[in-house]
Design goal:
Number of helices: 17
Helix content: 25-40%
Strand order of the largest sheet: 6-10-11-16-15-14-13-12
CATH topology of the largest domain: BirA Bifunctional Protein, domain 2
Oligomer: single chain
Radius of gyration: 29 Å
Shape: elongated
Distance between the termini: 9 Å
CATH superfamily of the largest domain: Bira Bifunctional Protein, Domain 2
RNA sequence: GCCCCGUUAGCUCAUCUGGUAGAGCGCCGGACUUUUAAUCCGGUGGGGCGGGUUCGAGUCCCGCACGGGGCACCA
């Protein structure tokens, strides 16, 4: 990217284009190095957050000054000259404060050095709090140190950046020019922290399992493939953590979770990034009903952590609807009485529903009906329960309804945010499910689940009955912060080169 | 992979039918000791890339790149 900028720089013959701006700023930096030995230090100790100063001096009356001493550091956002005095806005990670520079305080030389700084430069300031005649808490600059020079101009000081391409590719510019962007990623951190705090508090052990896996598994998705040179073997970036975490239950850890990146080699969209953050948690002696209660509590706490006040009702028990009933409601098709592939194909055709039926299997069509006609309508948090077995190779058969498994997916804001099972623990049934997946793979299904003998061996050691959940963190953040694109909540989303 | 839309100055945006491309902010110089989108005076900067049509292309046509939205795929 910088390459093309350099090229256009060479071609340009302008006197005040970007290359000239950079050259001017570079010359200023050089001048500072030569004339001010204190500039560009390796560290700058003793600073305090700007927000704290604003709070502490909120009581000052307009025009009231102090002789207190405070040290802050940050980036210059704006500069307003007034001859023998000047005002600068300084921003740190907590807040913005106005600096009041006066030649009678700083002396000619120092004042000149300060006012010749550029918007975007980083400085440290020793100053005395005051409230200006116009009523703004400010800092009288008694001394300052130039900490770093910005060679490139910052985004527009009022409008900021609105070009989404630049915002995603150069997130640092987005962050430095937009307080909301900074707040969003602080909120994301609080949500992740709340998730961990909840699980830690319930006795779950945070673990780390392999990202590079000899066999991928635990979800139906295409993997990224890579190669280990010394081992001379193919490895896959994980698509899920499920199988390793269940082996830990066999080992007796009983309650475990992992929060980290999964990778799926599939399309990019406003709800899909090729690498995304997932938390999976598993607990022995629990079923999918117990896990539904856990998810409700987890989301409730995440919402509280950022003071959520949107449209979603996070406090009451969420709505629960069965897979079959949800589809019947939305399409009028009762899957429990349309069990045959041809019959379902005909029912879809009769109602003129736009889902592909040519060569599609019963479970594929059923899944399509859910994602096309049900999922987009699920705005308030909702559990859809009890899926066809063919869609869920790791879920345990339903205790009372043949052909179904004990699985739910949680939806909110029209998208899936979590998926859970009463875990399949019977090694022989699991082996049959793998065999069924193998048959699908033989028919050309690219997302079929490969056999995992080590996982089967673990189940043969005896796995306790258990419930497990996977929650998409990025989507949870979208939901709680009201963003409609995953790229907004991922710092550096996947983009073309 | 397919369809639609977009790409003009460092940033945000204009530019009717093809006829020398404008503004605000920024930047450079000057004035100003309480400004806060500071103000005032002067100056400065540009058509994504590659072809084509035309006397003449930011504008019309073709291709490419990147982005946005939708579809397909997918959680």
């Amino acid at each position: 990217m910088s390459g093309s900028e350099e090229r256009s720089a060479d071609a340009g013959s302008s006197r005040h284009g970007l290359p000239e701006l950079i050259a001017e700023r570079r010359a200023k930096a050089l001048r500072l190095k030569q004339t001010d030995a204190e500039s560009f230090p390796y560290a700058y100790a003793g600073t305090e957050p700007i927000a704290g100063i604003l709070d502490s001096y909120a009581h000052l009356d307009s025009g009231e000054e102090t002789d207190d001493h405070h040290r802050v550091a940050g980036r210059i956002l704006a500069r307003r000259g007034a001859g023998r005095a000047a005002f600068l806005d300084l921003v740190d990670r907590t807040a913005k404060i106005q600096l009041h520079a006066r030649v009678d305080v700083l002396g000619e030389e120092s004042f000149e050095r300060l006012t010749s700084l550029d918007v975007g430069d980083l400085i440290g300031v020793d100053g005395a709090p005051l409230r200006s005649r116009r009523g703004e808490i400010s800092l009288r600059v008694d001394a300052f140190t130039v900490l770093a020079k910005a060679l490139r101009p910052p985004p527009d000081k009022h409008g900021g950046l609105s070009d989404v391409q630049t915002r995603y590719r150069r997130r640092e510019l987005d962050l430095m020019s937009d307080e909301d962007a900074r707040r969003l990623f602080a909120d994301r951190a609080r949500i992740v922290s709340a998730v961990r705090a909840y699980l830690d508090g319930e006795g779950f052990l945070e673990v780390e399992t392999p990202v590079l896996q000899p066999l991928y598994g635990g979800a139906l998705a295409r993997p990224f493939t890579t190669h280990h040179n010394a081992l001379e073997r193919t490895l896959y970036l994980r698509i899920a953590t499920e199988l390793y975490l269940k082996r830990l239950l066999v080992g007796g850890l009983e309650r475990v979770y992992e929060l980290g990146k999964d990778f799926r080699n599939e399309g990019v969209s406003s709800k899909h990034n090729p690498e995304f953050t997932m938390v999976e948690f598993y607990e022995a002696y629990a079923d999918y009903n117990d896990e539904a209660a856990r998810l409700e509590e987890l989301v409730r706490r995440a919402g509280r952590a950022i003071g959520y006040s949107g449209e979603l009702d996070l406090e009451s028990p969420w709505r629960r609807v069965s897979f079959v009933a949800a589809i019947a409601e939305a399409t009028g098709i009762d899957l429990s009485s349309v069990r045959e592939e041809d019959a379902l194909r005909q029912a879809i055709a009769e109602r003129g529903l736009q889902v592909p039926t040519d060569g599609a299997s019963w479970p594929q069509m059923a899944d399509d009906l859910l994602s096309k006609f049900v999922e987009p309508t699920l705005t308030q948090p909702t559990f859809v329960l009890d899926y066809p077995v063919e869609l869920s190779p790791f879920a345990r058969e339903h205790r009372s309804q043949p052909g179904l498994v004990e699985r739910w997916e949680a939806f909110a804001g029209g998208m899936e945010i979590a998926n859970a099972f009463s875990e399949l623990i019977d090694p022989d049934v699991q082996r049959e499910r793998f065999a069924a997946q193998q048959r699908l793979a033989a028919e050309g299904e690219e997302e079929a689940q490969p056999y995992d003998e080590l996982f089967l061996a673990a189940l043969e050691q005896g796995m306790p009955p258990a419930g497990g959940v996977g929650v998409g963190i990025d989507r949870l953040v979208m939901l709680l912060t009201g963003r409609d694109s995953i790229r907004e909540v991922v710092l550096f989303p996947a983009m073309r080169d």
